[in-house]
Amino acid sequence: xxxxxxxxxxxxxALFANSVIADKAKxxxxxxxxxxxxxxxxxGPNPETxxxxxxxxxxxxxxxxxxxxxxNWSDLENDPTAIETVKKTYAAGHxxxxxxYNHKDLFEAIEEGSMKENVDDMTDKIEEIIGVKPAYFRPPxxxxxxxxxxxxxxxxxxxxQEYLGERGYNIIMWGTDTMDWQYKEDVDSVIAxxxxxxxxxxxxxxxxxxxxxxxxxxxxxxxxxxxxxxxYVQSLGYEFVPLSECIGVSPYQSISNDKENQNNLNNGESxxxxxxxxxxxxxxxxxxxxxxxxxxxxxxxxxxxxxxxTSNAITIHSSIILSVAITIISLILN
Length: 334
Fold this sequence. Notes:
Layout: H1 7-19, E1 27-28, E2 36-44, H2 50-59, E3 65-68, H3 80-91, E4 95-98, H4 106-112, H5 115-130, E5 136-137, H6 151-166, E6 170-172, E7 176-177, H7 180-183, H8 187-198, E8 210-215, H9 219-235, E9 239-240, H10 243-247, H11 259-266, E10 279-281, E11 284-286, H12 308-333
Parallel strand pairs: 1-6, 2-3, 2-8, 2-9, 3-4, 5-6, 7-8
Antiparallel strand pairs: 10-11
Helix pairs in contact: 1-6, 1-12, 2-9
């Protein structure tokens, strides 16, 4: 009855239909105020190593952000110890964000039609475990949050940002990378990699702030790299702060920051870093790099969400459009 349908084309069309009136997710690579430093962790939970990271953070009185998967180093569907690890992390005052359900590159998720599974199902899983819906999202490999030169990747990135924005997410990238997944116990190489940004003569706590990337799933990271990085960053004069203080955005969609603190932060400007080098994260190539300048506000990302009523209307109408598009696709494929 119907001609042969290209599933990739239909998926892109559905995502585009949903994103026409949706707000894009805002992207953060560093903090609103200079001198701040944030620790973030990807790929967990790992019941064997994540608790060690929690102990280290407690020792130094630091709150981190953990971007988790349902299926990666553990199984949040079937492993009670993994679920308890997430609950313990949240109870200790750390933030829980989404890193997709299956640690799936979102470019691949678009092309294979698994955005709902990797984004929406992971949102539901986190809410099921800790009782609140996350507002922080880190895309695996960073794909979807770069300034892409390739037209197709640029188009997919636009769709990803709009898809996440419609679901209340903020995209959290990073301004300096430890490359801990590659260097393991070689802390000298870890520090040297961070120093590509931190040791620049134009960079200091007076002018710059950083969000860094680590992985709590490796014994070498939680036992060696993490304490070494903490003490090194402190020696440079940076202050460790929670991500929510860094960017002025609540980690959960149902919780608001203190209004006075929120207003003060929103009067500032977030900054991004120039992307000129090639970094790797989680064992896969990405293009997020930072060439620091003497000004910590070379690009601006507003943290204000304009018009709660408008946002609610956008969410409702966008959801209707997406539902209709998905229904049409299902009818055609069946």
